[in-house]
Specification:
mainly alpha
Length: 69
């Protein structure tokens, strides 16, 4: 498995957070619950604190909706 550090790790965390949010927003049959579940677990493994998780969740929301709040 690849190991990510520094900016690469930041981008992986952000991409996972964005992907989880996008999947969550997909309607019915287009929502892949198993992918979302696996991505959430991987993100949980990479994130070190609730504060960091909140940061990436906010960044994902901004990237997907353009709305910071």
């Amino acid at each position: 498995m690849a190991e990510f550090t520094g900016r690469d790790l930041h981008l992986v965390k952000k991409a996972l957070a964005i992907a989880v949010l996008v999947i969550e927003r997909q309607p019915g049959p287009f929502q892949s619950a198993s992918d979302q579940h696996d991505m959430k677990n991987l993100l949980d493994d990479l994130i070190e604190s609730d504060t960091e998780l909140a940061h990436y969740a906010r960044a994902a929301k901004i990237a997907v909706t353009g709305d910071p709040d």
